[in-house]
Structures are given as structure tokens and as C-alpha cells.
Amino acid sequence: MDTIITIGRQFGSGGKEIGQKVAEYFDIKCYDKELLSRAAKDSGYCQEILESHDERPTTSFLYNLVLDTYSFGYNSSSFIDMPISHKVFLAQFESIKKLAEESPCVIVGRCADYALSDMKQCINLFIYGDEESKVKRIMEKYQLSEQKALDMIIKKDKQRQSYYNYYSSKKWGRADTYDLCINSSKFGIEGSVEMIIQAVKNFEAGR
């Protein structure tokens, strides 16, 4: 097994749990918040800075500047003048590529599919769900009222969508952005895991 699995997810869809279970099945690592520790180690930034900018959009992003900086390396003068939020994105981007080169793994969120767009052994998934089941999950997980859970879902998904659409050339949550989209509300956590496992097996068999 040498496949890299990336998972985009709506808040409350169980995407992280699904990713962890898929990783357990294939006996590979799953990176979600763990990616921040790696990015901190690789970049030299403290983890608190990375956490404060994690999957959060920025309003003053110069897309070509960041791409040019990434192409020419961190020593360019443009990188020195770049806002910290952009540097955090580049640090995560670099760590995602390193992790994928080291060994097969599951990476949750953080534009991983975009960072690994050149890797042929990568399969990109998106987990979504209906509002009722997502609200119920968030209410139980964070002990929130129905309205507060819904507000949290809307806020988190808006952040993730803005972040993804800002930094990548694709659209968050749109079917043609991914290889497979799964409704975890309809198939459940275990059912979604089984579908992904089979999809990975089919993907590897067809390569």
C-alpha cells in the first residue's frame, strides 16, 4: 500500500474520525492537528502561531506572490515581507509534501489535495453530511444547544471554504474537485470507512 489519502470535510461530518479509522485499517498514520507539530518542527515557528492561523482565511493574500515565493524558496525577499498567515500556509504546504514523500498516510484538511496535486498515488476524498446529523454530532461532542451547534457548523465551514478557495485553484466541497465524495449521514461512519477502503483497493489495483 503506497497510496496517500487526503480528506476534505464539512464540520460535523465525522471526517476526522473516518480518516483515523481508514488509517488504522491500512496501518498508516493519520495527520490532522498532528500536522501542525510537524510544520512547527520543519519551519521553526512555534506551534501556537501555526494553531492560531490553522485553516483560517486571510483577507490580504497576494496569490501570485506566495506561489512565486514557494517556487523560488524561503530566502527570497518577498518571503521576508510576507504576512505570518501566508508563511504558516507555506510551512504546512511544505510539511504535507514531505510527509507524503516519506510514507503512505491520511491527511485531513489543510489543502492537502492541492499540495499533493502532482502525486499520482494520491486519492482525494470529501466527506459531507446533512444538517440534522451534523448538528446532532456537534451538540453531543461540545455539549451545545441546537442553535449554537448550527452556528458553529456554519462558521467553521465558512472558514474552511474561504481558506481552501483562497489558497488552492479549486473549489471546496464541489464534486469535480475530488475523486470521491461521501455522505456520512447516509452511510454512517463505518459505512463510509468501508467505502473508502474499497475505493483505495480499487485505485491501487487499477494502477
Structure in words:
It is a single chain. This protein is an alpha/beta fold and 207 residues long. The chain has one domain (4-205): P-loop containing nucleotide triphosphate hydrolases (Rossmann fold), CATH 3.40.50. Helices cover 58% and strands 12% of the residues. The protein has helices at residues 15-26, 34-43, 47-52, 63-72, 77-80, 84-102, 112-115, 131-142, 146-167, 184-205; strands spanning 4-9, 29-31, 105-108, 122-128, 180-183. The chain has a five-stranded parallel β-sheet, sandwiched between helices. α1 packs parallel to α10 (184-205) and α8 (131-142) packs across α9 (146-167). It is globular. The protein starts with a strand and ends with a helix. Mean pLDDT is 87; it is low at 60-77.
Attribute tags:
207 residues; alpha/beta; Rossmann fold; 10 helices; 5 strands; globular
**Fourth-level CATH superfamily:** P-loop containing nucleotide triphosphate hydrolases
Tell me the distance between the termini: 12 Å
Helices and strands, in N-to-C order?
EHEHHHHHEHEHHEH
Q: What's the story with the biggest beta sheet?
A: 5 strands, parallel
Into how many domains do the coordinates divide?
1
Strand tally, please?
5
- The CATH architecture category equals 3-Layer(aba) Sandwich
CATH topology: Rossmann fold
Mind telling me the C-alpha Rg? 17 Å
